[in-house]
Sequence to fold (722 residues):
Amino acid sequence: MSTTDPQQPGPVTGSGAGPVTGPGPGAEAAPVTPPEAGPPEQLALLRASVRRARPRARGPQPLADELPVARVLVDKGLAHLDQYYDYAVPAKMAGAAQPGVRVRVRFGARVVDGRRAGGGLVDGYVVERRAASDYPGPLAPLSQVLSPEPVLTPALLRLCRAVADRYAGTLADVLSLAVPPRHARAEADPSPDPLPAPPAPAPGGWARYPAGPAFLDALAAGRSPRAVWTALPGPQWPEEVARAAAATLASGRGVLVVLPDGRATARVDAALAAVLGPGRHTALTAELGQEERYRRWLAVSRGSVRAVAGTRAAMFAPVRDLGLLVVWDDGDSSHSDLHAPHPHARDVALMRAAEEGAGVLIGGFAVTVEAARLVATRWARPLVPDRDGLRRAAPLVRTVDDRDLDRDGAARAARLPTLAWRTARDALARGPVLVQVPRRGYVPRLACARCREQARCAHCAGPLEARGGDGLLHCVWCGRPEADWHCPECGSFRLRAQVVGARRTADELGRAFPAVPVRTSGRDAVLAAVSGEPALVVATPGAEPVADGGYAAALLLDGWALLNRPDLRAGEEALRRWLGAAALVRPHAEGGTVVVVAEPTLRPVQALVRWDPAGHAATELQEREQLGFPPVSRMAAVTGSPAAVADLLALTRLPEGADVLGPVPVPGPPEAGGEPQQRALVRVPPGQGGALAAALKAARVARLARKQPEPVRIRIDPPDIG
Fold:
């Protein structure tokens, strides 16, 4: 988890089931009679004096006759406040204050002689109505029912609690990811009536997989199969996802599809509309805007729509009678939420499937080690094509060592080995050519041309980069220009690019193929699709547009830059990115060719040549088992200043068999005004992940109680393990 220890005036005291007696639930201000009309200046002075006046405490309010106690989850994402609080239900709110609705309550107040004083208004959710409270003292009443819409269902509450416990987070933090902000106009609009279940679909593209038709039959019959799907290359996978959704709806159950980005969501949305027809599904993406997204979310919560496709936030969508969860390309980093406690869509899907008895389909062109472990433990079955079908669908993959650039002057000028240049030249006669470059920009990283030592800033030791075609160097960390660089190791003044960016590659390819248009797709401008006309399309990984009719060829450049990253997942991630690009190329029978510029004998390169992502993942899993690394073990990253990391680890009661790796310095510039950061990895054996998360959260609460000023970030299952 990557949360920061907040600083509070002091710890809260009182019963975990009741209101607090020091700082705790409190009083509303009594209504103030508005002043008489007057000049604007006079009215402003009167209003200011009213705001400065001390609010009068109210007397006791009549309470609800039945279930007069509401157990409330307050929206305070603080570890030491991660509990429920009891409030009294006024009689006027008895009908509206039902479980699941949003309310406002006084928090951080005192109740003295039946009167409330102090405290601020905070939002919360009613999780339960009770006849009595476990807390012996007086209860503060609810201040307001914000909406009668029950947005927090019991199933969603259980899921969010489980996610918070797994990732050492707070329930309020998870709910902020799961429940979108309220919009009154969206709640006022009625949701349409649900449509009847569609008929079971024909196998369609699933007939290309030996177990595909049986998988659809199991879904249509109401069963809950679990599979790891190695998809065939080509553009058919959205239609196959839509047919799996149709089979689930035919059984009277709901379906949820989680995708890595908006472009993939748009493709699946179109496929669902074509297979299911209008009105049976909805798409949830950030591009919709808060009001429209909330309107669609309410349609799902009310049961009007039972098929949902969306990006990672959709993993919490309250689909009724859930029958199938689909996660596409689970190795994409976009599936890991950027906000605390950083849940991963794949793990949330597995937790939902276990809780709700739903089927699971983890799919993609590549196979992650986590998905391979599901197959190895027989929790899921492999859903793979046969070799003959794979040969018909896949392009030809050829390899070339990037050291050929040093031996071939013409190839070095175009930054392409001769084989890659010839492949691109021949393919441009038939259609577009995709060029995948690991980095965006012009020349992101530079090194000494003689000894290959990385070029660093003389002021802060940050890496230097060339931001444009003028050759001026700048520091990535501090931004200072470097006009007179020389290598401190060998004294050379000559530089070479470690990895040339997409824009520089586009410039060089434009000079090598002057008659061919060059298009770029990256973070600044991502193309969704390109035409089938001849063109060079330079893209960074994950930003490759879909070509009409498929690409005639693909060039995967600077493969060593992906493989040489100091990360446990470097090989797995490189293969995933290569497969994602190669899957957009036409089959070999139609002339489709892929050239990967990397050391041919390396395992990920050979897996690409054989198109065997499942075999590569199985081998990686065996090595992880021998070394005791995730996903076989569970791991947490603790990051902060050296003193803060040491303090938190000293307070943590680690479970038996835990190992602490480090701490080691965190690469990168120190935070503004702070000291350099360190990171420690805590590893536990299988089955101890929950105990590790609970221990780290308890230590974090202890630091809050001791008012430790320095923050510590905790992240369970960190995506990068260097």
Notes: The first strand starts at residue 69 and ends at 74. Residues 457 and 475 are 6 Å apart (CA to CA).
